[in-house]
Amino acid sequence: MKILILGATGRVGSQVVSYALRDGHHVTSLVRTPDNIQIMDKNLTVIQGNVLNKDDIECVMSEIDIVISALNTDSTNTLSESMPLIIEAMKKENIKRIITVGTAGILQSRTTPDLLRYQSSESKRKSTRAAKEHHRVYDILTHSELEWTIVCPTYLPDGECTNMYRVEHNFLPESGTVISVADTAKFTYQQIKSTKYLKSRVGIAY
Fold first, then answer.
1. Sign of the C-alpha dihedral, residues 81, 82, 86, 92?
2. What average pLDDT is seen over the chain?
């Protein structure tokens, strides 16, 4: 499979790259600083560019089967500004499937079901800026024709891959408070072969 991975230098994205290469897929990554990619592999193509540049996005979409975005918010509007460009480029190349990494803040609240978690007392985070940016991306994907999945981890420390996590459609698993980067990356990567969570958010936690 030919996979485009955006955010390949980040904590989750870099591990998704490793999983994909380990299974023999061809990975293309679009990064601002290619030197930040520490992996050397014959199946890895690293292209310098910016997700906010329409031409750069269109350039890396050629012959791609599936898109995985693990882009960070980085206190900017990069996520929401790049997603329309990504969707348009995918449409031109007739690519249907996209998997993104979001945040548990955009899952539905259990205490106030008509609100998202970041909008309710269920969220303990003081700042809602990142969640609002992920919310904008969620809205954009909802109105697209893509076969999207948003993986929504809660507190995300580094840690080992345990394969012992819980997942749930549109909600954070009850009493879930933490999930490692490694398990989040593994689950995100596994969605390339799954249709279980199409057009859905999926909460992940221990």
1. positive
2. 96
pLDDT interval class at 86 (50, 70, 90): very high
Between CA 105 and CA 134 the distance in angstroms is 8
Decide if pLDDT at 125 tops 80. no
For 46-100, what is the HEC assignment?
EEECCCCCHHHHHHHCCCCCEEEECCCCCCCCHHHHHHHHHHHHHHHCCCCEEEE
Burial of 126 (0-12, 13-18, 19+ CB in 10 A): exposed
| DSSP character string of the chain | -EEEEESTTSHHHHHHHHHHHHTT-EEEEEES-GGG-----TTEEEEE--TT-HHHHHHHTTT-SEEEE----TTSSHHHHHHHHHHHHHHHTT--EEEEE--GGGSBPSSSTTSBGGGSTT---S--HHHHHHHHHHHHHHTSSSEEEEEEESB-------S--EEEESSPPTT--B--HHHHHHHHHHGGG--TTTTEEEEEE-
- For residues 47 and 8, is the Cβ–Cβ distance under 8 A? no
